[in-house]
Amino acid sequence: MPVVDIERVPRGIDASRAHPARRYDYWLGGKDNFTADRESARIIADAFPTIRLSAIENRRFLHRAVRYLAEEAGVRQFLDIGAGLPSAGNVHEIAQEIAPESRVVYVDNDPIVLVHARALLNSSREGRTAYLQADLREPEKILELPELYKTLDMSKPVALMLLAVFHFLEDDAEAHHILRTLRAALAPGSYIALSHATSDDLASPVEEHDVVNKQSGIPFRLRTAADLAGFVEGLELVDPGVITLPHWQPNVPERQRARPGDICMHGVVARVP
After folding, report:
1. 44 domain residue, yes or no
2. How far is the CA of 213 from the CAs of 25, 40, 48, 216, in angstroms?
3. Within-domain flag for 43
4. 36-72 confidence digits (pLDDT tens)
5. What whole-number distance in Å separates Cα of residue 259 and Cα of residue 264?
6. DSSP code, position 224
7. Does the predicted model carry a pTM greater than 0.85?
8. What is the span of the domain harbouring residue 192?
9. Tally of domains in the chain
10. What is the distance between the alpha carbons of residues 243 and 267, in angstroms, rounded to a whole number?
11. 245 to each of 69, 96, 167, how far by Cα in Å?
12. Which one, of 120, 111, 9, 127, lies nearest residue 75 by Cα?
């Protein structure tokens, strides 16, 4: 069992096992992670040295997607599942900068996110934010939580944010069931923003990465861009469709964008007709 500093571990949190939210926090330069999370991160980085850049590009994709949804698509409600620990430019900060009346619900299953949820609840006066402790793997329970409906009106358009979370679902049938369940709860005119680690741009065989992911202690499933397109089949894709993250509606010149092989993640934003 990894050695942890018990003085830093909030009550109710198992710091002996790596957790995706805390590992992601480490890659983004945060401090709310433990020995097990950093060891898991090191195992991944040994095989994929640009993983930190990949995490940063995923965060940049979130910023651009939320800005598009709030500014161009006119969305005023957001449901961010697998939100992770607060970082610079959270969903509500971007959305409420554009439209102060925006409402945001964050969902995560790591108790340490709850410890820091106050940063996610710092809403504008006109808008509202909420945090729900729940698991993506139980979408029915998420949709049954009364707190969800105290913040969001699900009869009106909602942007469902599923960023860098579906690759922790190894089973395809489970992943599709979860997405169908959540999608069925969305009103017409809603959007789904999804990012996912993909095998398309890997420089080495995917089997090697599968072995490393198992060694990291966190279940993980690489999929192709075509698999990602399958998740949003039947929806109206926002230009440019399913594409490597740095090329989804980029806001920097081509020469400044990260190389696809350094990111190995694709993203998509799609509208519910």
Report:
1. no
2. 18, 9, 11, 5
3. no
4. 999 999 999 888 899 999 999 999 999 999 999 999 9
5. 9
6. -
7. yes
8. 51-271
9. 1
10. 6
11. 16, 24, 15
12. 127
